Inverse folding.
């Protein structure tokens, strides 16, 4: 049985082979599977969980490639729909000289945006212990309604709901719509993970306690804010704390946040009681979950790309044993 269902975009990232160039200058690109919810699904599968992915790809070679990658990683792909009339989502990415990422998305519309409520595998969602989603699937219809439909099924069945908005401002019509819709998407969530930049965007503050208190008022009982190499901070009505990150020589931070979510949910699964309302675990458990998730996030920075860098449980345990050592 599928323990965790991840819903959202799965796409091809075409990553510039040269860094320090804009997309105009980039001479060649390497294809890599991407999409935050798909990365989380693979992350959880590597950690030994039974995971299903729900989304939509085009009936094209890239869609086939993505389904193949998920299958190879033991992710259940029976919830992936295919579209004969729209292509698989693509993104072209390069790291510019100033350290910022230059992004260009092909979704006019892409297949992922055309997921419909009828395509949601209701039984798989209702029988899971955790349902995880992001905000990219909330941007346009019919995918937005499909996401809310899945959220309603999960809520009704007492499935714990996890949300990582993964702000991609240039996919939204404007910043205000992005803020409103991401906050609106929170009303179903039991657990929410964001990074400190997203915290500032959503709440207007980088102050962890104040920001978390504001987010709490939108619904989630448990909020975790990640701060790159700084580690992670957790907040609930009965517990709050900061867990410092591991010291590593990061090569590529792509997928660190998704690895973190996979690690955190893997840990949280032990505390989730299916069919019962979610209660945030106590301080010690949350600290342990952040520590484990920090390790997964740190390991994800040691290798290029998101999916190739996600560790197995044995690798995380080994890393924690030699905590903080540079490299693995
Ligand atoms: P996102 O990718 O969502 O922006 P972060 O960059 O905050 O998320 O990374 C998520 C987690 O991954 C951090 O909380 C931390 O535990 C780990 N991590 C990320 N970057 C580093 C780094 N340079 N060194 C050590 N750990 C890191």
């Amino acid at each position: 049985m599928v323990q965790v269902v991840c819903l959202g975009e799965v796409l091809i990232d075409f990553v510039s082979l040269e860094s320090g160039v804009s997309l105009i200058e980039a001479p060649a690109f390497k294809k890599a599977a991407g999409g935050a919810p798909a990365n989380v699904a693979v992350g959880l599968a590597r950690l030994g969980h039974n995971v299903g992915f729900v989304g939509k790809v085009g009936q094209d070679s890239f869609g086939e490639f993505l389904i193949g990658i998920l299958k190879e990683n033991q992710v259940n792909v029976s919830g992936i729909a295919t579209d004969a009339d729209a292509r698989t989502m693509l993104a072209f990415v390069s790291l510019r000289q100033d350290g910022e990422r230059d992004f260009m998305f092909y979704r006019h519309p892409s297949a992922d945006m055309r997921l419909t409520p009828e395509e949601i595998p209701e039984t798989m969602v209702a029988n899971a212990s955790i349902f995880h989603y992001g905000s990219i699937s909330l941007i346009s219809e019919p995918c937005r309604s499909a996401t809310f439909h899945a959220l309603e099924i999960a809520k009704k069945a007492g499935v714990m709901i996890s949300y990582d908005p993964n702000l991609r401002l240039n996919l939204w019509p404007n910043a205000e719509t992005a803020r409103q819709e991401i906050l609106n998407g929170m009303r179903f969530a039991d657990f929410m993970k964001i990074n400190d930049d997203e915290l500032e965007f959503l709440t207007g503050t980088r102050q962890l306690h104040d920001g978390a208190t504001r987010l709490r008022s939108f619904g989630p009982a448990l909020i975790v804010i990640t701060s790159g190499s700084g580690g992670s901070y957790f907040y609930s009505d009965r517990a709050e704390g900061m867990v410092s990150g591991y010291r590593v020589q990061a090569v590529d931070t792509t997928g660190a946040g998704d690895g973190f979510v996979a690690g955190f949910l893997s840990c949280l699964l032990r505390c989730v009681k299916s069919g019962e309302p979610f209660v945030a675990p106590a301080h010690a458990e949350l600290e342990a979950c952040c520590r484990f998730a920090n390790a997964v996030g740190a390991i994800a920075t040691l290798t290029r790309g998101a999916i190739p860098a996600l560790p197995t449980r044995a690798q995380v345990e080994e890393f924690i044993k030699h905590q903080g050592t540079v490299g693995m």
